[in-house]
Amino acid sequence: MNAPVITPFFLRNRLRGCDRAVLATLAHDDGRGITGYPAGALTLASFDHAGQPLLLLSALAHHRKNLERDPRASLHVELDAPPREPLSGARLVLFGQAARVDAAALLARILRRHPEAERYAALDFHPFRLVVERVHVNGGYGAARWWRGAEFLAAEVDGLAALEADALAHMNADHADALAAIARHAGLPGGDWRMTGLDPDGFDLCNRNAGLARIAYAEAMSASAQLRPWLVALARAARGA
């Protein structure tokens, strides 16, 4: 990873393209003598519009119980496919405090990204958000940097979250051909690509066979009114390629 591209916008798009991560919490005393030890757990990863992690956690899971006693946590995300030299790949760690969020829109955002998790949402699983305080990125040997959460996260775009569900439904129902062209232009395999999430940095596409793909805008969005013309421009460019 070259230094000029290590910007929050670039990294947020890389981060949003990841579907799993390792959550580290502080273990509580459960009779096993591990109180205070870092406890890691593999988890599905989703992100809110700012880029903060959204996690669907079971009431039975030790990491959720840990968070309910001490909300401090970190989330380690591999940004690259496993490289030949494991430590040469880019990875990112988000530090913050996790809290349960009972917001239907955030749960829907998680389930669109991970539809296989829908069967758990009706049980004892609930969404948690990691409120990011610090971010550390390591782009390989000698390429590391820290950000404060406010420096790293995307600025709020008024109205974007409110129109997301309708925009997704419209694109998937009426513009499947445009999504297919955008996917093809991005070098993705053929198939039924559906838009499953959008945010100030870009949008997510999902294909049942190929999985998740991330399409980034040229720059971060500053107004929700930009959404339609940007999507139209992307589709035209893809069809003309």
Automatic annotation (TrEMBL):
<dbReference type="Pfam" id="PF13883">
    <property type="entry name" value="CREG_beta-barrel"/>
</dbReference>
<dbReference type="InterPro" id="IPR019595">
    <property type="entry name" value="DUF2470"/>
</dbReference>
<protein>
    <submittedName>
        <fullName>Uncharacterized protein</fullName>
    </submittedName>
</protein>
<dbReference type="InterPro" id="IPR037119">
    <property type="entry name" value="Haem_oxidase_HugZ-like_sf"/>
</dbReference>
<dbReference type="GO" id="GO:0005737">
    <property type="term" value="C:cytoplasm"/>
</dbReference>
<dbReference type="InterPro" id="IPR055343">
    <property type="entry name" value="CREG_beta-barrel"/>
</dbReference>
<dbReference type="Pfam" id="PF10615">
    <property type="entry name" value="DUF2470"/>
</dbReference>
<feature type="domain" description="CREG-like beta-barrel">
    <location>
        <begin position="18"/>
        <end position="146"/>
    </location>
</feature>
<dbReference type="InterPro" id="IPR012349">
    <property type="entry name" value="Split_barrel_FMN-bd"/>
</dbReference>
<feature type="domain" description="DUF2470">
    <location>
        <begin position="165"/>
        <end position="234"/>
    </location>
</feature>
